[in-house]
Automatic annotation (TrEMBL):
This is Endo-beta-mannanase. It comes from Galbibacter orientalis DSM 19592. Belongs to the glycosyl hydrolase 5 (cellulase A) family. GO terms for biological process: polysaccharide catabolic process. It holds the Pfam family Cellulase. Residues 1-21 form the signal peptide. The lineage of its organism: Bacteria, Pseudomonadati, Bacteroidota, Flavobacteriia, Flavobacteriales. It comes from the Bacteria. Residues 81-304 form the Glycoside hydrolase family domain.
Length: 355
């Protein structure tokens, strides 16, 4: 990952404007001035990626039988209590497909709960990470000690490269965007999480281009983005950065490397939001990363809020088969009862926002 030459090439390509943008993408993309004005109108953006502790994945969060408004309210209350003002939340096209009206009703209910807690939302549409075969209905139980054992891609694989699926996805994306296009409770639309992950690489580029086109055709009042995450995916990175209103990115490295990434991405002269960071055993911590992000006025959205069925207290590649708590949590801030995993971390979070 630490390939400075790849990043420099990315910057060169993007700044020279090599992106093959279609007229819709060009005409509706925000100017740098509009993006900065939007960013300046908000307090410092910081919070977490959120799925309630009772949900193993996006489908369990959004399907009618398992939508848990009580837990969502309680856990967003934990977030509000330490000053978090933004949650990044994944949607799922299959939950919409089987129950369009119900799905949108539940999205509205979630937004009401978040707004009551003073929290804005970044919604994520598509995702190339973890299980490639999402299935509607009852979701599996967590595998003991295994990070995100039940998380599912959207739309999955090979579905993500099958263009026959694109019209149905377009209907879904445009319906959600149109329904909430002027909703001030939504901060930003994150169109595609980690395109090209799970070895897909440029196989995800056609769908990435399509979802940006669909979003630009709707032209919501909120900005759109798709975060860069792997520096050697040059074509994907170039398209994402060139076509995003706000530059978003993921970084789970230590602060020295993360700072270099910040300094390079600042060359785009657009607001930055780090939409994933904080993996303690990789030395990406609140203590060494969050103050740096605030100093550079970069939005900071760590992975994980409450330890639950997603099992993200366990590291990506080090499962603990008997389910014992790891010596050090990988992600997450709170236990289910609202007790902080580390009091010094929540004290720092509060301090940085004068909470």
């Amino acid at each position: 990952m630490k390939n400075i030459c790849s990043i420099l090439l990315l910057l060169l390509v993007c700044n020279l404007g090599f992106s093959q943008e279609n007229p819709v993408l060009k005409s509706n993309k925000w100017s740098a001035e509009k993006a900065q004005s939007w960013y300046d109108s908000h307090n410092w953006i910081y919070g977490a990626n959120f799925v309630p502790s009772t949900a193993i994945n996006q489908l369990e969060m959004w399907q009618e039988d398992t939508f848990d408004s009580e837990t969502i309210d309680r856990e967003l209350g934990y977030a509000a209590g330490i000053g978090f003002n933004t949650m990044r939340v994944y949607l799922h096209s299959l939950a919409y497909k089987v129950d369009k009206k119900g799905f949108k009703k539940r999205v509205e209910e979630y937004l009401n709960i978040a707004d009551k807690n003073g929290i804005k939302t970044i919604f994520v549409f598509l995702d190339d990470v973890w299980d490639a075969n999402p299935k509607i209905g009852k979701q599996p139980a967590p595998k003991p000690g295994t990070h995100n054992s039940g998380w599912v891609q959207d739309p999955g694989y090979p579905a993500s490269k099958n263009e026959a699926n694109f019209p149905e996805l377009e209907t879904y994306v445009k319906d959600i965007l149109k329904t909430f296009a002027n909703d001030e409770r939504i901060l930003l639309w994150d169109l595609y999480n980690e395109p090209g992950n799970n070895g897909k690489s440029n196989e995800s580029l056609p769908l990435l281009k399509e979802i940006f086109t669909w979003a630009r055709e709707v032209n919501p009042s909120q900005p759109i983005s798709a975060g860069i995450w792997k520096w050697d995916e040059k074509e994907l990175n170039e398209f994402q950065v060139t076509n995003s209103d706000i530059v978003t990115y993921h970084d789970y490295e230590g602060p020295e490397w993360h700072l270099r990434v910040i300094q390079l991405l600042e060359s785009f002269n657009r607001p930055l939001i780090c939409t994933e960071y904080m993996a303690r055993t990789r030395n990406s911590r609140f203590s060494n990363t969050l103050p740096m992000l605030k100093e550079h006025t970069i939005g900071a959205i760590n992975w994980g809020l409450v330890n639950g069925k997603s099992n993200t207290i366990y590291a990506w590649d080090t499962p603990i088969a008997n389910g014992d708590e790891p010596i050090e949590w990988f992600h997450d801030v709170f236990r289910k009862d609202g007790t902080p995993y580390r009091e010094d971390e929540v004290n720092l979070i509060k301090k940085l926002n004068n909470k």
